[in-house]
């Protein structure tokens, strides 16, 4: 009996079953699949977030070419199906899709999940449309990434300093082109949201971009697109969360005054953030000892601190570390001689108030407590922007 025949029978049976379901059953999903595999007792893994935003990791055995997952969700959720519990997006072992609170059928191949076909989820159909809209951008990004890797390999293979410099300049051009492609991708997502104002994918896209590196650049568009969403989406769990995040972010954009905090530093001394300002410009640096991009920023922060700390510039490091020794060791090793606090020793609302969804994040505050700069992520672009911003302040003061 062929795989296609199995899939046809599966769809026929589950379609009839779905039609007979009561509305009270709409909170549950059922993922029924047939899989092409030469081995017996293969395992498949499913990852998704439930309605309380808890990550669920489930697994099942493939028996006679079939498998099934069941769970409870009220709204469509971004999910991952994988042949292992690593969920590595390598193009074949894991596939991203949308679960819906109903019966979904999938036909796939154990050796290449990327060719999976899903039936029974309207949201999954919308997700495929989004991927189609962005496909040419993905091709461009893959090409740029491949070029970057090849130039990086050449740098490692040559001892010629001039040649290395030329290759680094080419990589800088590639990085700039890749950054522009991210803008193109975001614009395509915004086009999708305008076309699908009732799609649960739209709230996910807006939440993702609001938490992303370019959130400040696109904040007004994100706000306007939220306003254009259907009432159904605004009242959904993700819609309510999106509104909450928009309010928090809007309170942390350039031009807003920050909330004052009483903090406990590395020496167990208590101080107010407003006392640190006291006529100074303060850079809040959210980081952790285990965060490589955070640690990579330390050299240029040290240079800025050495030059401007006697002229009215201060840095406050706010670490997400859970291990105190690792935190202290990193500070000593990096010779980061500014004021430091451990977030777990302080008010647990700090990260939420400052809308810290990932690190590194840097927030520059003027002596009046007004935010005059905000940056998410590491990298040369952010470094140049921060350095130029602080230089300009003290040239004019």
Task: Please describe the structure with a list of short key phrases separated by commas or semicolons.
single chain; 397 residues; alpha+beta; 5-stranded mixed beta sheet; 4-stranded mixed beta sheet; 13 helices; 22% strand
What does this structure look like?
The protein is α+β, with helices and mostly antiparallel strands and 397 residues long. The protein has 13 helices and 15 strands. The strands form four sheets. Strands 13-12-11-14-15 form a five-stranded mixed β-sheet, with helices on one face. About 5% of the residues have low confidence.
Please give the structural blueprint:
Blueprint: H1 3-20, E1 28-36, E2 43-49, E3 55-61, E4 66-72, E5 77-82, E6 94-99, E7 103-109, E8 117-119, H2 122-157, H3 161-195, H4 200-211, H5 219-228, H6 231-234, H7 237-250, E9 262-264, E10 270-272, H8 273-277, E11 281-287, H9 292-296, H10 298-308, E12 313-319, H11 324-334, E13 339-342, H12 350-353, E14 361-365, E15 371-376, H13 380-395
Parallel strand pairs: 1-7, 11-12, 12-13
Antiparallel strand pairs: 1-4, 2-3, 2-5, 5-6, 7-8, 9-10, 11-14, 14-15
């Amino acid at each position: 009996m062929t795989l296609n025949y199995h899939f046809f029978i599966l769809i026929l049976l589950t379609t009839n079953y779905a039609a007979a379901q009561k509305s009270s059953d709409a909170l549950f999903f059922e993922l029924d699949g047939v899989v092409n595999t030469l081995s017996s007792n293969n395992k498949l893994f499913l990852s998704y977030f439930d309605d309380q935003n808890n990550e669920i990791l489930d697994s099942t055995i493939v028996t006679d070419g079939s498998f099934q997952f069941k769970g409870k969700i009220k709204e469509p959720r971004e999910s991952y199906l994988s042949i292992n519990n690593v969920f590595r997006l390598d193009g074949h072992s894991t596939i991203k899709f949308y679960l819906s609170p109903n019966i979904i059928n999938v036909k796939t191949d154990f050796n290449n999940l990327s060719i999976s076909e899903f039936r029974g989820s309207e949201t999954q159909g919308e997700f495929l449309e989004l991927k189609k809209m962005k496909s040419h951008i993905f091709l461009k990004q893959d090409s740029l990434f491949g070029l970057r890797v090849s130039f990086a390999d050449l740098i490692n293979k040559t001892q010629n300093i001039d040649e290395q410099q030329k290759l680094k300049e080419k990589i800088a051009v590639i990085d700039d082109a890749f950054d522009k492609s991210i803008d193109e991708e975001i614009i395509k997502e915004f086009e999708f949201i305008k076309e699908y104002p009732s799609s649960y994918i739209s709230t996910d896209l807006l939440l993702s971009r609001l938490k992303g590196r370019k959130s400040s650049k696109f904040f007004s568009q994100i706000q306007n697109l939220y306003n254009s969403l259907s009432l159904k989406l605004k009242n959904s769990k993700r819609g309510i969360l999106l509104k909450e995040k928009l309010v928090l972010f809007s309170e942390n954009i350039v031009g807003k005054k920050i909330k004052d905090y009483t903090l406990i530093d590395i020496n167990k001394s208590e101080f107010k953030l407003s006392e640190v300002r006291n006529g100074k410009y303060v850079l809040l640096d959210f980081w952790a000892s285990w965060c490589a991009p955070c640690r990579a920023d330390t050299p240029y922060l040290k240079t800025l601190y050495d030059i401007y700390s006697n002229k009215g510039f201060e840095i406050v490091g706010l670490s997400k570390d859970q291990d105190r020794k690792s935190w202290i060791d990193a500070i000593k090793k990096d010779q980061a001689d500014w004021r430091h606090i451990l977030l777990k020793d302080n008010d647990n609302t700090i990260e939420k108030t400052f809308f810290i969804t990932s690190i590194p994040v840097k927030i520059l505050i003027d002596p009046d407590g007004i935010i005059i700069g905000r940056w998410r992520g590491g990298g040369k672009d952010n470094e140049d922007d921060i350095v130029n911003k602080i230089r300009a302040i003290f040239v004019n003061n």
